[in-house]
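Lab notebook, bench 4. Still working through the backlog of constructs that have no structural model yet. Next entry is a single chain of 616 residues. Request: give me the structure tokens for it.
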Amino acid sequence: MKFVRFSLWTLFFFAAAARAQPSFTGPAPVPSVIQDAGERRAAYLSRVQEVIAWRAGLVKPGEPATFGMAEIAAKLLRREDTRACSARLIELLETPSGDMFWMFSVTCVSYLGRDQLTSAAKAAVREAWRTYFPLRGDTENHWVMYYTSLYLMAQLWPGEPGERWFNGKSSAENFAEARDYLIHWTGVTTTIGQGEYDCTHYIGEYSIPMLYLATWAADPGMRQRGRMMLDYLMADYAAETLNGIYIGSHARTDDITVREKWNGLASFFGWLMFGNCPPTAAYGGWGGYFAFVAGNYELPEVIYRIGTDRAGAYTHHERKRTRHRWRNSDVRNAPVYKTAYVTPDYAVGSDQGGLLQPIQQHSWDVTWAVPDPRGVHNTIYSVQAHYSTHELMMYFTEMPDHMPAAVTFQGKPSYNQEDKLLGGSPYEQIFQQDDALISLSDIPAGATFGHVNGFFSKDLVRLEEDPSGWIFTQGGRAYIAYRPLAPYEWRPLEKGGKRLYSPHRQNGTLIQAAAVGEFKSWSDFRAAIRALPLEITLQPTPRVIFTSLRGRKIECAYGSAPNVDGRAIDHAKEWKLFSGPYLNAEVGSGMLTLTHGRLKRVLDFNTLTITDSVVP
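Model written out:
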């Protein structure tokens, strides 16, 4: 992989482009494929420079509040106002906060300013790392940021004793601990899958540390590990996007992004890497910390084409893992089985259901393509509304007494609400075959909620309830047939659209999607769906037998393995770490093969080697 330095010449070359309207307020890009490598690189660097110049331009003389850590980094990168940067840095370090987020922002500033910051500013940084005790956090993204920062700062200040560090450990001890964790994390991720997988926001909290390692680690092996993991993360993302928007199931998302699929930091990477969707407001906030060093990364062509150049529909499978389970489980990291069916007009994506993550799990949806996704709810899905202390105790180490209430005060306001549209349930079982999906719920008496919530977007083109029990909808150029398994009623949603509320404990949802171009008319689509063989049984437990538009006979019974065309599906045996036309990896292998057309790249984490080839 070609790794280049971001020179001053590059900054000045693209300065004119950066003075234009920010892309997050400008016209939406038209998805396209740039064939020429030089043109692709120039477009990428132009976007990088746009972010840097915008961030630096936020600084207003005489208004310190506009001059934060990110602005200091942008100014240092542009080699502007370096004395002011040092003075402001000293002020900010008087009251440090933010734990591992503080750590990686200060790490960025420290490395960018090695030859620019004043001696006093450098001394203030060093003193802050002695007196401020940043918490390591309790999630995977926290640990990756924490240990990457600790690794690089211990490298910057080698040979110092424990009394010079906030945790009482010497530089050598901190360096070794950080190195060991980072090697462990990459090993686990590339053999049994990531725990906080495919997050709409936290993709940045993994990508930024890996870019920093790839740029600043002195050890060639750690630099290579950072480069390869950045390729790994970008490839994983590219395969499950629709014009840059993350689709399907996510370990973590939030109450906004679960409806407005574009509105997450992931879309910043869609814009930056592929140029096929607008960036989120302020470039996703944390996106700046990637952009400051992004000139040192070049997206491999095979990944660029996976994200932008697709011949037609494809099915993609992934195997991930749950976060660490501390209680209420005999398995530390249970496997997560993901399916995505992606077409130019829409995508259907899912996991197998169950409590795979705490609080912010999103298990399935249909997402349709739109010309400009900003403010658009281009998705439809359902959830079995659930919350419990049992769930929280499984994944968190805090005591149970106050946890459900505490969660709602920590940025997860819908967690214990009956109208929630986000979260997993131990009583939901999901199976997807192509663009058909069956979700079954069998909710015991005494469970917190005993109903299913269906999200129906404000941006649906059509919505018709049919006497057959099907609800026919259209989003963009996607026809979507939605079949509630039990009676329901409609309830309004505050932010537009409506909620299908079905208060029955034996319940579920059946979905069949199709492209508008497959049918002569809306009437033909409805007739085709009504003609599909369908059997629904709710008692004693839900069961569906359905023949899809693709001619597959799907049988799902709650508590049993799904069956397709007479063959039982065994997720444990059939799901690889990745499988599909673009990404392939065996569980436990530590290797990922990327292919697109004749292009092939193999990432071998066992030997830390990258092999590129062109298939004859």
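Notes after review: Residues 309 and 526 are 31 Å apart (CA to CA). The chain has 18 helices and 26 strands. Flag for follow-up if needed.
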